[in-house]
Every structure is written in C-alpha cells, then in structure tokens.
User: Fold this.
Amino acid sequence: MLQFELSQRLREAVLPEEDCAAAMATVQQEPFFKLPQYHADQYGSVREASSIGRIFTLANAWHDQIDAAVVIGRHETLEGMRAVIEARCDPFHNELDRAGRGSKPRMYFATTTSDNDSLAAITDRITKPTAAWGPQRFAVVAVIEGAESQEVIAMLKWFTERLAHLEKSTSETIQPFVAIIKSELVTLPASVTTMADHHFDIPAGIEGLYATFTPAGLLPMAMLGLNCIKLLEGGLDMAKQLASKLGEDNLACRMRSVQRWARQNDRTPITLSHQDSLARLATWCDSLWWSRRGSIAPTLVVPRDARQAATLVRADGFVQRVKANADRQDSVCLPMEPSSNSSGSVHERKVGQLRSLDSTLQAASRYSTDLTLPSIDMFPMGQWMQLAMTASAMDFGDSETGG
Assistant:
C-alpha cells in the first residue's frame, strides 16, 4: 500500500487543515477525480464500445500493423503518460528488435516545445526499421487541446507528410495511421478530422498535467502493452480512500498541508528519487503543484554523492523522498572491490549510499516527507497519481491562484 509520511520535525511544524472536508467535497466534483470511476463503470457495462475498450482494440490491432509511432501534443499533457512509460518499460525499448519489444512499436514523442533538430531526428529515426521483417508502417497520435492546438495541427500535417512512403511492389503511397485525441471543447476543421482513422475525446474540464487517465495517456500506454486497467484501478482505489477519510488520515489533505506550509514559509522543495525509473514521475507530481499555484519551483535531485547533495539543500529547504520497496529487475551484483571475490547487489549498495545521503540532507534541512510505493507497478502508480492530482487541486481558501 502506498504510504506518505512526514518527519517528526515537519509534523510539529505543519498545522492540520480544519476545512479538509469542505475541500474534499469540492475536489470530488472535479472531472479528473471522477474519471477512474467513469472508466470502470463504462468498461463494465459496454466493454468494447467503451472508451477503454476502443483504446485496447486499436492498440492491439496496431501491434501487428506498425513498426513505430510518434505521439505529438503539449509537453504538459504528455508528461504523466511518459513518466509511467519510463517507470514501467525497458529504458532501451526503442533500441530492441521487434522480438525483443514483444511486437510492440517503437515510440517517440514530439511536443510543441520540440526544436528543429529533434523533429528532424525523430522522422529520420522512425523511418529506419529495426528489422527487415514485420510491418513497415507507422502511426501518428495527435493530442489536440485548446492551448497550442494550432501548433499540434501543424506538427500533425508535417509528420503525416514525411512518414508517408512508397510501397516497393506497387509503387503506391502508403500513409501512416493517424489517431486524433482532442478536447471535447475543441472543434476541428474537416480538413484535419479527415486525416485521422480513429478519434477519441478528452472530457471537458481536463487538460494538461491532469490528462494521464484520459485517452491522451491511455492509448500510448496501451500501445506499449502496459496494464492501463491496473493504473485506473489504483486511481479509483485512492479516490475511494480520499473520499472516505478526513483530517490527518486523508493523504491528500496531509500532502496539501505540507505544500501550503512550504509556500507560506518560503521553503524550497528538493525531491530525491531513490529509483531512476521514478524520477520523471516525481517531476510530474512536482509540476502539478507548480502549474496550479505558480509559487514553488520543483527541483529534482538524484545525486550519487552525499557531499554534492548537501550543497543543494538550503537551510530553509525541505526534502521530498520518493522510493519503491522493490526494484523492477532482478538484483545485479557487482564486486565490492576491483580485486575482491566478494560481491554485493547494486540495490544494497545504493540503499547504503542513500542512507548516508538522507543523513546529510536531514542534517541540512530537518524537514522531510517520504512517499513509498510497495513496487514499481501500475496499481501503486495509479494511486500516487490520483493522490498528487487531488492534493494539487484542493483549495483551502488561501491566497493561492492557479497557474
């Protein structure tokens, strides 16, 4: 079970939120909060015709039809999905051959902040297959919201043109498959709509960093074979926990109290991810707070040297530790010393380094939080994401404004 704990010093400093019940009642009406339950109800009643069912049908079909895909959209909207993929997929997924990828496509990402060289490199890389056999077709997934929609549409047209290619035996032009995922509030011209073979909607009131549980996040994850149902079940489990608990027992209120304390006391958070695979998800969680409030810039630290870390923590900062109790892969053992026959696991060695690092950070800041996952799996990550979104969306009537 996911845990979120405060150090003794921080518990003494942070005041409990007396209006937690009212804040939770309000946030439960937010579209993002209802989304895991909506998916569960719809998938349970109409199965293949549901949004999740259609996503699974398309993802499974594309496994046999495409070699590579590019997902395009705003950086904020793609970030949560990319964080889950980074946590769960082989870090060298795109370098594996088709068999090594389990017939899943290579996947690349382009955002409205991508520069000239990265866009050119993506098209060049996609069109160079990793095997002489298998499908030689590509897909473009475009996520279009109100903000920066014209930039995404321009990128969609650009990629569609450049990923088209001639079929060798017939000299026929083969177009890439295209899926458009758009906000319900966006109306696209017919010239754009007809470019896509498949269409999905992002519910009104959800965008940016809060869109991971919408088709914008679920379709790319399903294309890579990730268990989206478990992710949503984790989100639903956390939503039910938060709806039934108040005060200190409510993890969102606890997290929100820390965030409010940090803002009011000008404390700068330093986020320490114990596993590299969780670093991007930790950044996404920090970005939720930053984008909503615009008052605390997130800082992610994954240092290997305790002395280096000590210089990064100001006396008025505090540490947010993120870790999982189990790594994804089997233990890797390395020699303890170059000339030694004895060996120790990388995990044990890193735990020792992190304990030393924690002691250094604690001495420097004295305030800290610990968010612990039982494992790097979809269910606890779904819990974490729902918790982070809920905490960042809670309004306790202070002077903060949305970003």
